[in-house]
User: Fold these one by one.
Assistant:
Number 1:
Amino acid sequence: MGTMKGAFMRGLDNMIIKDVEKPTAGKGKVVVSLEYIGICGSDVHYYHSGRVGAYEVDLSQDYMLGHEAAGTVVEVGEGVTNLKVGDKVCLEPGIVDGTCEFCKEGKYNLCPDVQFLATPPVAGCNEEFIEFPSDYCFKLPENMTTKQGALIEPLSVGFHAANQANVGVGETVVILGAGTIGMTTLLSCKAHGAGKIIVADLIPAKLELAKKMGADVVINSGEQDVMEEVKKATDGAGAEKVFETAGSDVTIKLTPFLAKRGGTVCLVGLSVKPEIPYSFAQVMDKELTITSVFRYRNIYPKAIAAVAKGAIDVLPLVTHEYDFAQINEAYKEALTNKTDALKVMLKVK
């Protein structure tokens, strides 16, 4: 049994790399040599604060983060027929029981017993190799790279958001927040045929990238009145679909005022505040539909196909890339760079 390198939190704002046991492929599983791992906002919260909502890292021991990953299959376990050595794959990080009512309905993202990578106490995948169920490893087409593959996870959140809001051809969409999930929501709405996409954020560099990725109107919410600018862009009618992706109480409270009568508000960003005042007078008067997003379900094959066929270009999401040995620097970049860092990516090999 050999060893490999794994990266772990040791206390807050600190990563260490140490040798750990290299896995072998058990029944129904494969070993993937990981090549790219994205740093998610939740990873950064755990790294800096030790918790996300109700989930808390046990700081008395080392803990591994990371859940956005892709690589190449190097070993196949007994009973695996869908993959072979040499296949490029990306990982869907939530393993479910498959027997609960939600799994049976196809809403497996709501499974109460899900084992999701880098959600305490479940360890993540900031390591050189991982043993993973073959059913949760999705083969990438030949024309896709593993770098693109590592972006399928955050893209799936945006895809699910567009599905939840039922974005239709020609509709006007407002997206509040131009972080990674805001951008993947933009890309997904564009792929769904949205007619006009309006993006609001505080950071000019992110708004510039949003324009390059397909936004028709961008609003600097630090300098402009978002409500007034949306009115201007929609001839006073508001947007059919409004997405909140920042998780800010300010933008969450703004959503019903931006929606068109009979429109839909989709809450995607997770707020640190458990309770936020909200104008249900606006909701009732406009007969709005409110929907929300928890991760994603049944998205990976469609998201992979969209990227492979060129309908969605995910690579511009990556603004910074670090070698695995520089993981401390990478996490510090993701934590402190509020101006132009979008997706910080780790190159494992």
Number 2:
Amino acid sequence: MRIEDIAREAGVSSATVSRVLNRPDLVRPETRARVEAVIREREYIPDSLARGLASKQSRTVGVLIISISNAYYMEITETIHKRLRDTGYMMLLGATDDSPELEKRYARDFAARRVDGIIVIDVSNENFASGFFAREAETRPVVLVHSNPSLRGSGMREVFLDQRLGMRLAMEHLWGLGHRDVTFLRGRRGYSYDLKEEAWEEWLRERGAEIRPDRVLRVEEPNTEDVVPLAEEAVGRAIRAGLLGSALFCCNDLQARGAITAITKAGLSIPRDVSIVSHDDTILATSGRVQLTAVDLRMNEVGRAASELLLEALAGKGTAQDSVYIAPTLEVRESTAERVS
């Protein structure tokens, strides 16, 4: 069956059928529904290779994330997927495990598959500094989602998440509740963890508080579900060694869930004995017995912003310097309370 046959049965032109297949957002809903009904009934499968060769577009977009099992990345990519789907694009997904080499390999593989554009969430400093993605942006639109202030204004399309601000909001909240001894739980490596720890130290230094290295707990596999038992173990050791302060900041919700288990197993109460603030505010922040106070990175807004920047670029709109700033907020729930003397 050909496009012409679909058009005849739906009572529209071949050009309308083509728009339904390639740019459904440009077709009136009732017309689109009528054409799609014929396509389903006839089980029509368009030749995507032929369409790509003719239009010089693959109607695919590559998205790079660090981890599939971290809800932070999945909530962003779910929003991206829905927006791309609604405009006739398919999303290809690659998880880099925080490896610059794997990030580069996937980006090259996307290019070999002739994707129309690429979105990189938490771009590695190495591949940015080397100019890899700047060179890639010369052949197809690239949107970077990141929290590194030194990358801002680099001349590439970007969505900037102000995680330093988020960390300060968390510390302001805990400080206001009387907590002066805040333990910091982080991944062993990763720029966002370094950034948050710097903000944690900055806050304490500004107030003349002691910065204790033994209040920093580090875990491996920080961005995958494997970190939950590792965080439990790390916080458990800190409790047994008397190194857990009156409050605990966790760099993501996965780490926070492991920390909660360790604290409750030790017979301590949240928030009476220990207040906890988490970061990201994914579904994990509100899905357990303890509802977490958390820094909300507004993942849906991030996904929408990244999608729109890319779609505008693919439509020949906007500029390569387009930038969107996302300011996090703090969602206060039951895991924090005033420090008990």
Number 3:
Amino acid sequence: MEGVLVIGMAGERIKISVPGYSDIGKASVKALKQEIVGQWPKSFEYDQFYLLFAGVTLTDKNSYNEEAILQDYGVKDGSTILMVIRLNGGQAKRYDQKLHSSFLTKEADVITGDDDPDSWRGKMSCGHAVDPDMLTGYSKHELEKGRLDVKCPECKAKWGFTEIREKALLDQEEQRALEVMWSKNAIKTTKKCPGCQSIVERADLSNLRVHCGYCTKSFGRCYDFCWRCLREWPKFGPTTNKVGCGYCINEKDLSLFLLANCDEIDLPDCKIGQKVPRVRACPNCGQLCEHNTEACKNIMCVACGKEFCFVCLMFTSICCKEGGWHEKCSRGVAPRQTVIPTLKS
């Protein structure tokens, strides 16, 4: 039982025979390939290589879809066969099909759209698939933006850290980096009390005047501080707690305060059916504007010249296509603005 000479891994030449066949030519191509897999265990799977003899590929089936025999290709004892290994596309991380079988899929990558059938991807809890390298890079990118959550780009479902750690195959360095970024993003909503240096956060996000019970007890007096500038709240500071302690009030703060606290008015010449805030910020440039309660619901900004609806805050060209100048807006009354618009080109 002489066998054939196979040039395989790392150029190694090994003589291989097929048990039960004194004449190697009568063995099937499949049987020979199975013997080859056994010579290099755990190096590759059966379907990850093919054989070449005299420039011809040895296929498992012949043209009649029958099991191909080596002698059909002219192979005999002493022949030299070249093994060609199929390499998958570049992928720094690769799933273990046994260890990670519970979430492996060949579905297209939700981030890149890659649907290479030779690459395994991880199925996330939301049902979408992603490559481990892409999941690592995407998570890092999202956290670098300062976000507290990493969400699926398709359905916006949250991907938790433990799931990302498992399915992105994070090494210790990558895991440490993501943990640090995640923690830093979380503490962006916290500050240090200027009195005791404790890490604190506000229970009431609309209140810039914060009371520290620990400092009050330590100092023997009421201790409040300004969340914006971290100075102790002055004894004769502003009574309002929404625009700062007096040291840090600026024009933008006052504008937001006015938008949030102005009274409401009726537009008697319009069929609105409800009141609207007296003050609005121009949706184009942010200039504060008031309506004189006369004529139609649209006004022109004195700063940028843009005309907009005082009710729904859409530009007049859009609002009046959906309804009349005096009619109720299809979008309804816009809520009080909490952000000052910036000038648009």
Number 4:
Amino acid sequence: MKAAVLYEIGQPLRIQEVPDLRIGPDEILVRTKACGICGTDLHIREGWGYTPELPFVMGHEPAGVIAEVGSNVTRFRVGDRVVPNIFFTCGHCFYCRTDRETQCVNLDGIMGVLKHPGGYAEYFKIPARQLFLLPRTLSFTEGAVIADAVVTGVHAAQRGRVRPGETVMVISTGGCGSAAVQICKAYGARVISVVRSEREQQRARELGADEALNARIVDIPTAAKDLTEGSGVHCVIDAVGSEETLSESVNSLCRGGRLVILGYTQERYALDPRQIAVHELEILGTRSGGRQNTVEAIRLVADPRWKSIVAKEFPIDQVNEAHECMREAEALGRIVLTFDSSTSRIS
């Protein structure tokens, strides 16, 4: 089968033939139809964050059609349209039993990130327990972004305990940020989007943000206070995680406010412990999402009110160009790789 393979840190991926995948009795083989690109993919190529053993097939945001099922699989059949949850969890530790699966103490890897090859290939395999049916009303490109961008937004909103009537600030209109804006609106919050260009402001409004602030023009904490009668926002979801955005986030919170750190960079931000303690602020991490988050993500994207977060599509042969497009922040939303529907090793 054809795949885009990472052989060396800092180098382009190579498009080549790799050995066909073989499945076990509890696994399913899926023919990839589309696969989203995430910032984590760029981090892996750059050699920081996750460090899989090379050579490696990345891609943790795929959707496709079942090509083969293992002998023990009864819930799915060949031809089903599916999207995965990408975390290979044990299913029985404390975190798996309390809807915190991404913190599984026996985690066996992450599809397209650690140990298990991902969706930058014509096929991927995964345990049946990690697969979910994709509604026929959704395209494969829309379905692919569910696996990470939307799941991550759902988990972030739930980690931040977003409630109706609250004011939530979402930093970024990238893939996860675009999803988070819509998710928080769906949960009944007033949403302030923080961006860094007029083009992004327009996009934030299209996604449903009540306010869109350009951080290059206004002071974000001041603007946040102005929009909340001086109190600040209840929750910030920071999908960037730079020193600048973390400072904006903390200083925009109301007393008792919650900061959810969704994105991250290699930058560091020094917190003021007095500010955190006196104002009883909460700082929360969030990491992708578990299987129940996948169910919720599918529900949200299948809702007719959902607006696509897919900004551009590239064929898999142009994966390196797609990565460069993401690196240069040319797309407002998710970039998705597509696969030739005529290609299949199983008739």
